[in-house]
Amino acid sequence: MPRTGRRSCLSLCSLVLLGVLAWPLAAQRQSQPACELAAGGRAAVVRVLDAETVLLDDDRQVRLIGALAPRSPDLRNGAAPWPPEQRATAALRGLVLGKTVELAYSGRRRDRYGRLLAHLFVERGGERIWVQGRLLSAGHARAYGLPGSFACMRELIAHERAARDPETGLWSNAAYRARSAHRTRALMRNRNT
């Protein structure tokens, strides 16, 4: 490749790399996702059932689609509360409890338990806050998708990355640390744990 061609490629590659690195930060600053969502009405949250499920004033349960909160690895009766799960529940409670939320849908609208699968938005100080984005960027949840509900995955992953890279929230816990796929023996030792 001629010298001028290498410079052009280097300049273009640098711009692309800067855009890729800056995109998660821009996505984190957004108060709402850029993806297409269908409006689903408004209701008040009367109870936070767990770190990813709320009860509305009309008795509907909403499962926050795209944000998977931590669960205690100890499922025995009487087990001590797990701090990452408690912090995630408290964060959700602080965002939505007693407030009117706006529901939005992407794909499937109900899970097998009859709960609504929705994105939630809440107004705070004149700002429209995307609840899933806020939980992910604070490290209180992991991004995930269900078949038929992959809308907003880019935005969800960008918000997760904002917490995962600096190991904020649940990402500081050894159970959630990323492990190298090249170390297969170490991965095999950790299976079923």
Describe this structure in words.
With 193 residues, the protein is an alpha+beta fold. 34% of the residues lie in helices and 23% in strands. The protein has helices spanning 3-29, 83-96, 131-137, 153-164, 184-189, and strands at 38-50, 53-56, 61-64, 67-68, 100-105, 116-124, 127-130, 142-143. The strands form 2 sheets. A 5-stranded mixed beta barrel has the order 1-2-3-6-5. It has a two-stranded antiparallel ribbon with strand order 4-8. A hairpin with a 2-residue loop joins strand 1 and strand 2 (53-56). Helix 1 crosses helix 4 and helix 3 runs parallel beside helix 4 (153-164). It is globular and about 50 Å long. Residues 4-30 have low confidence and may be disordered.
